[in-house]
Fold these 2 entries.
Entry 1:
Amino acid sequence: MFAMNLILAAEDTAGHAAGAEVMDLYNWVPGVTSLIVFGIAFVVLYLKVWPKITQGLDDRQNKIREEIAAAERAREKANLALVEYEQNVAKAREQADEMIATARADAKVVAEELRTKNAADLATMKSRATADIAAAKRAAIVELHAEAATLATSVASKILRREISVEDQQQLVQESLAELAAQQTAETEHGMAGAPS
Amino acid sequence: MELLLQFAATEPTDHVTDKYVLGGFVTMHTITVVVIGALFVWAMFAAAKAIATGPESQGNDRYTTKGRWAQFVEVVVTYLHDEMLIPVLGEKHTKRFLPYLMTVFFFVLFINVFGLIPLLDVQHLIGDLTGKHFKTYIGGTATASITVTGALALVSFVVIQIHGFRELGIKGYLQHLCGGLIPGPIYLLPVVAIVFVVEVAGQFIKPAALAIRLFANMVAGHTLMAVLLGFGKVALDGAGGSLTLGVGGITLISALGALAISFLELFVAFLQAFIFMFLTAVFISLMSHHEEEHDTHDHEHESTLAAVIEPTAP
């Protein structure tokens, strides 16, 4: 195999030697071909390819620029909205604080008024009750004194009108007591009749 | 093993030299360039279709580029446009020359990268396997041919010169060739003559350097790979055709070296395409910004010449 290769290589070299002269005659051919191929390629690409590529790249660049500009505008808008929102929130918080403070102050005033009023009412009621009690007490004492005096006067008048025996005395006492009871009963009935239904 | 070593071919330069196909008129590089040209145009059409803005019905999705190849083209074009060409040429001239410069870049890139596909070696291998020695019709690196790189450099030369005349006018162009020393003092005429010759030569040397640089880099890289692979074959021949441990070791090391160089070659393929395009842009810019630079150069020239003619005491 190797020997065959060597033979082929030798033939190849011989072929080269024979073709070398021909090659020297036409060694400009690849150059001219390159010139023609490059020229055709350039014209075709210049008309059909590079405009598309440069236009595509320009479109993309413009799109990116527009997107960046739009994003910046949106960011500025968002920043403004955020500032406005924060201002509104601060304002609302301020208003809420003011309202709470006002409500507390109002509540305090109302509570103070209620407390004062209650205290005053209580004091009035207490003094009125004390006065009522004192009046009732005085009335009761006066009434008791009157009753006692009446009874004593009645007993004394009866004693003075006649000499009384033990039986009379007892009878007089009994009568006086009965009169007293009757008088009390009549007063009670009178009181009940006069009471509102 | 022997077959694999055939990748090295009998001569390292076999990988970079052109092969005659049809009586010499049509060569392997000729066919390769035509095929690559067709592939190149097709691939760029596909990329353009994917990069172009889609219909509105697609929504925001119409702005996205679909497909790896189109994304690669987009990234490369965007990077070269924004980072390389705008700083050198400015907005106006970048817009004007972008189609030409990008076509040059991708065309050279296609040829360079195509050269890394071992079509030539595969054809050799098939020939060895079948026992028939057949001609190689396609393959190799077309930019390893000085006529191909020369043709591309010629296009750049024409573009640069047309732009120079258009931008500067006849008078400005001639002033540029005189290094900005005219109008100037009469005693500077000998210097102007020298500068004129150098500048005129420079107009041809610059594109020639473009052609030679690309050609030399492509030839050197592929030759180096072939040489490295050839070490194994040389070792095998030296051992009388018997496969010994030493032969295996040498072959392995040389193959690994060739593999490493092939990665370097991939980088060089991109780099040289970029350099060709970028230097063309730089040469265009030298003709574009001449007036601005001219003033600066004038001052520099004047101050330098003044210092030479009338040296001031320290």
Entry 2:
Amino acid sequence: MYRRIKKVLGGDILKKRGKGIGVTFYGTGYGNGFPDVSRAYARLLEDGKVEILVGATEVGQGAKTVMVQIASETLNIPIEDVILVNEDTSKAPDAGTAAASRQTYNSGNAVKIACENLKDNILQEAKKILNVNSKIGLVCEKGSVYVKTYPSKKVSFKEIANINNNLKGEGVFIAHTTQMDENGQGAPYWPYTFAACAVEVEVDTETGEVTILRAKLVLDVGKAVNPTLVEGQIDGGFAMGVGYALMEDVGLKDGKMLNSSFEKYIIPTSLDIPNIEKVLIEYPEDTAPYGAKGIGEPVLLPVAPAILNAIYDAIGVRFYEIPVTCEKILLQLNKG
Amino acid sequence: MKIELNVNGKDYSIEIEEHLRLIDLLRDKLNLTGTKEGCGEGECGACTVIMDGRIVNSCLVMAFQAHKSKIITIEGVEDEDIKNAFIEEGAVQCGFCTPGMILAAKSLLDKNENPSEQDIREAISGNLCRCTGYNKIVSAIKKAAEIKRGGRNV
């Protein structure tokens, strides 16, 4: 670690710059022995489309998009042919909470298994219709099944559904989750997502204000099912990290929240967030649907440590408590 | 009391209570529920509407203050360029801030078809977003501006 003071515009020495990094790893799912099960059903509809029932809640993170993509990939059908029912508890089976960065990995696995089982049943039916001895030579493509070596021998999902209207598949995925021992040792989660964040900050030594000048975030996603959505998660997680590190404080006192409105509970605005250079590392995880690990929380975690390290690099003060507000910085600097 | 106003090109003459806020008039009386109430104290911008060409927090405007005014809510935004750019860039996550963001963007682009990134960040700085980290919203507004300047086919 080194310290450096850079002159900024107009030779103003009151603003000091520093760089910092943060590196984290984080388990997908509930972990530590808490039961973690996702269920999904897949069903062939009369019109040849496929209905996916999975209780994965969409809160903006993209579960609805990702589940449809996984089903579409597994059954090799267009996105438009996947009908997702995900927030109707009278129809969709329990897929756990949209929490613990678990929906893509856990419920994605359940959807994939359900679709594989449905595909198997569709092929079984197609085998009879196409009058071949085994499923092995059949190909599922764009809502049809055909014989690999004789492509004109073909039957559509719609035709199959008209012959058998009871083709279904169930998917149950039980995640690895074991309790740690009394010393905190063990194997609580699987898999782990790795993330690294680097930032350059400028600290105004007159006002205590910290500005994030540049940021880079590298994320080992396993596989990005939808890269745009992963980028959106990185942007969002980074902004939450900035708030966490520098601004956000509910101010609990005697069991009461002192900062219970946006007037006092400050979160970042568009002016507080820089553009972020994003790098997605795709090293597919064997147990994951198409290799995709959980990324929701991992994008947030390395941000605050990176910012606090950068502040230390800039002004030589090590903070052990967040948020590092302007007041706290000034207090430390004025200690002399 | 009775007020007259124009909302999304339609004239209304409505009986209101004096304590009614503009957001309540829009949501409860006119059933324009696209406008969201976030904090209810003018901090978050979720309730942003355009009033006589300026963006306002409709939670801080009393309904009677809107007498004789022209209001545009998210339902009245006919600008497909902005909406499409938000979709294409992935600028929507939970969506709660989106109506306000789009109105703030429209208000900016109505006045400035070639905004800098700083202009865009300032224009939406009164609109809080918890999910997106703003960057994709900023690129969506940049893209909408490009499309407006004729860059669609580039």
